[in-house]
Amino acid sequence: MQVIRVSTGVAREALINGRKLLTATGKQPMQGPVGVGVLGLAGDGQADPTVHGGISKAIYAYPSEHLPFWKTVRSQAQVSLWEEEVPPGVLGENLLLDGLLEADMYIGDRLILPGCVLAISEPRYPCFKFNAAMGFKQATKMMVQSGYSGCYLAVVEGGTVQAGDAFTVQAGPRDVSIRELFRSRARV
């Protein structure tokens, strides 16, 4: 299992559904080590801290295995060409992970990285801003139907993280997976 990409970004104003709103999607890939503190990655921000960010939702991780799905549906929705990759950070992800899917992410599991320790805390539930970020009106619905939510991480031990970091999963209580919790709350 490996961190493929680390992305950060600050909240910025965007026109969404005819209104100027703050959004922090469209994060940009970072080179080298990025600081990890109790509230997340250095240089990262959230537009609405009532639903994103904070101690239990400090970092948003997303499986790289889902990118081909989003590439296809964005092409079908005619917001990108078939050969275009999903832009980095468009999902709002801080960490793009390889080798860990929602069915294998359990609340309380810890990701042991070379420079920090993170704990899986809850799934990400998309809001209307996700449609704008992805460029088509059905994106939120498709995330709910697919269950491709990714997860939020709390910081257990701060330090650094960077692209290429290998990580292991230290099992927590294994009571409920991200997939199970997402499906139960999203009523799928």
What's the topology here?
Layout: E1 2-8, E2 12-16, E3 19-23, E4 28-29, E5 34-37, E6 40-41, E7 59-63, H1 67-76, E8 95-98, E9 110-112, E10 117-123, H2 128-134, H3 139-146, E11 151-157, E12 159-161, E13 168-170, H4 178-186
Parallel strand pairs: 7-8
Antiparallel strand pairs: 1-4, 1-8, 2-3, 5-6, 5-12, 7-11, 9-10, 9-13, 10-11
Could you describe the 3D structure shown?
The protein is α+β, with helices and mostly antiparallel strands and 188 residues long. It has a single domain, classed as M1 Pyruvate Kinase, Domain 3, CATH 2.40.33. It is built from 4 helices and 13 strands. It has helices at residues 67-76, 128-134, 139-146, 178-186, and strands at 2-8, 12-16, 19-23, 28-29, 34-37, 40-41, 59-63, 95-98, 110-112, 117-123, 151-157, 159-161, 168-170. The strands form 3 sheets. The protein has an 8-stranded mixed beta sheet with strand order 4-1-8-7-11-10-9-13. Helix 1 (67-76) links the parallel strand 7 and strand 8 (95-98). The radius of gyration is 16 Å and the shape is globular. The two termini are 28 Å apart.
Average the pLDDT over all residues and give the rounded result: 92
Low-confidence stretches: none
CATH fold topology: M1 Pyruvate Kinase, Domain 3
Helix content: 10-25%
The number of distinct structural domains comes to 1
Give the CATH H-level superfamily. Answer: PK beta-barrel domain-like
The rough form would be described as globular
Q: Please state how the strands of the largest beta sheet are arranged side by side.
A: 4-1-8-7-11-10-9-13
- Give me the CATH architecture, please: Beta Barrel
- Indicate the multimeric state: single chain
